[in-house]
Amino acid sequence: MLFFRTTAAVVLVGLMGASASFGLDVRVAVLRVDRTMPLPISRLDLPVDDLGFAGAILATEDNQTTGAFTDTQYALETRAVPPEEAEAAMDALIADGIGVVVVMADGAQLQSLADRAGPGVLILNATAPDEALRNDGCQANVLHVAPSHAMLTDALIQFLIWKKWPRLFLIHGSHPEDMLLADAYRTSATKFGARIVEEREFADAGGARSTDTGHVQVQLQIPVFTEGAEDHDVIVAADEVGIFAAHLPFRTWDPRPVTGSAGLRPLTWDASLEAWGATQFQRRFEKLNRRTMREADYQVWLALRVIGEAVTRTASADPATLRAYALSDQFELAAFKGQKVTFRPWNGQLRQPILLGDGRVTVSVSPQDGYLHQVSPLDTLGTDAPETTCRSFGD
Amino acid sequence: MKALWLTLPALLCGTEAMANKVFVSNERGNSVTVIDSDTWKVIDTFPAGNRPRGITISPDGKELYVAASDDNTVRVFDPDTYAELWTLPSGPDPELFVLHPSGNPLYIANEDDNLVTVVDVKTHEVLAEIPVGVEPEGMAISPDGGVLINTSETTNMAHFIDTGSFVVTHNVLVDQRPRYASFTSDGKKLYVSSEIGGTVSVIDMTADEPVISKIIGFEVAGVLPEWLQPVGVRVTKDGAQVFVALGPANRVAVIDGTTDEVTDYLLVGQRVWQMAFTPDEKFLVVTNGNSNDVSIIDVQRREAVVSVQVGEQPWGVVVAPD
Fold first, then answer.
1. pTM, whole model, 2 decimals?
2. Is B176's CB within 8 Å of A334's CB?
3. In chain A, where the domains are located
4. Which of residues 184-213 of B touch A (CB under 8 A)?
5. What is the predicted ipTM?
6. Do B112 and A283 touch (CB under 8 A)?
7. What is A150-267's CATH number?
8. What is the CATH number of domain A24-147+270-352?
9. CA distances, B289 to each of A365, A376, B144, B275 (Å)
């Protein structure tokens, strides 16, 4: 049946006759600060060297394809440094004349880097979820592409309420990050009418992430740990560091679904997503990087697409112009999530749908149907304008 | 082909209405549903490969083209027997394409490689690959066949391509995620839908360069603005009416082609996607992806008069010529 012949005479035609000619050079950097962290439980989640940078390379290709039609050149610098070298790396990038820096760091580090960079440099927060960065500690030169803890926990709790599973058994870890995440779950539960009927802390006792017959012990430990909890519909795990949550599913005392940091997880991206044209996007990434896309890759891609879109619409590479445009009601961006993403002008947080997935399929996407808001249903996720304590974004 | 079709229904109705076959690609059903445009009954269903989406038919009605996205090929079927005749090279994941008004060549948006692939439907050879923006999607061709339009979903441009030289001559920036493009039959205007932007850009083709003359927005009481996502666009031959499928808003907007103002919203099925007129333009057939049916809009009365159950997740539709 297959008759066609491929031909050597295929014409590859060059680009010509661009309508707009900006004559711009846009230089951006991605600065990744690598803390020493415990290794994840599953080998499928082991760190990759090009985390985030892979998304940056794809975004730069995408921006450059568009740039070919507007006479714009995009240049990307990437730096991966330990925490003690982060400030020097930021200084060097700025000294080199770079005015837009995507930062992958924890909240405290991001805060100090943004301070150091100063108001002339536009910082895009790609990974830090801390509420404080968007509220009391907000800084005018930082735009948050990473969702906040509250956006993630609201997304999950909305779904659990839609499912009529309001009784939660919250299990959190013992690290400070786990505490922040647990706080966000408590707030979300109150906000949407769920009830935390039981709370327990899973202490990090250290040790190796995996041993040859580790599952034998875990199979005995988890039932004992979860035994005797108040009647609950689901378990919500708050394990930001990745110490225990992956061990919960199928091992709990009561047969209940696990959500949060394992089982059904709130995610900005998942390699399984195929809706809204995501398949092509996944494939472009996989072809370029020879692995599937992780959340950090997506968030860095999105940060650089924010810049690319702002450059295309403003014909400018000036960080202040790009920031003003991104925060204006003119800005909108398609992000393979079924609706446009925009920034909250009161604290620089990107509004975005949150996926709920188990790592194999995308189960749902929040906001859920029926959660309405006078500005955007996306503002039902996370801190809203009336509650924010951010004061750096006022005109 | 048509003689067979004419006799019985035409006699029953006592009108001169021609019965045409309507072909609907079912994205999830991996099939094409065939509907009779006179009785609006399903007369057949045939397998069409994996994830069939874009669908069109040759001007002589003898070849039906289906983009089988997950097979990375364009399948060509006999519209009478539904036998697969051959396949055409398309590049990975073909979704939308457009035929030259003469019936050859076929211009295919190749999303993965940021290319438009030009395929000779007789020799089955790739004639050219034209670099365009990121994620090429919508395809349209001017009535005289001189200007090919491609929309790129992530670059957010309509690219104007000279079909003689395959050179991109102009790029017009439109709103987010441009999905579909359609010329008026006089070639003087081009409508480009932006799914995520929620708008349709009207591009004036009569000046030295194509320029946006108007951006049309949509508003339906009780429907969240986020769900007003324009996808398919169809213009009547006289240019008087423009129909725009609004995706998850479950509406088709009607636009006055003179003023380019929205005059009506027609309620149809869920996630309305692509559309096709019958040759006499009395009816507009629209696919409803989430309700597994097509709505038949009476163009004069401006309402959906029939709904026909088809396969799973109908995507594209084409009506055979008279």
1. 0.88
2. yes
3. 24-147+270-352, 150-267
4. 195-198, 209
5. 0.80
6. yes
7. 3.40.50.2300
8. 3.40.50.2300
9. 19, 25, 32, 12
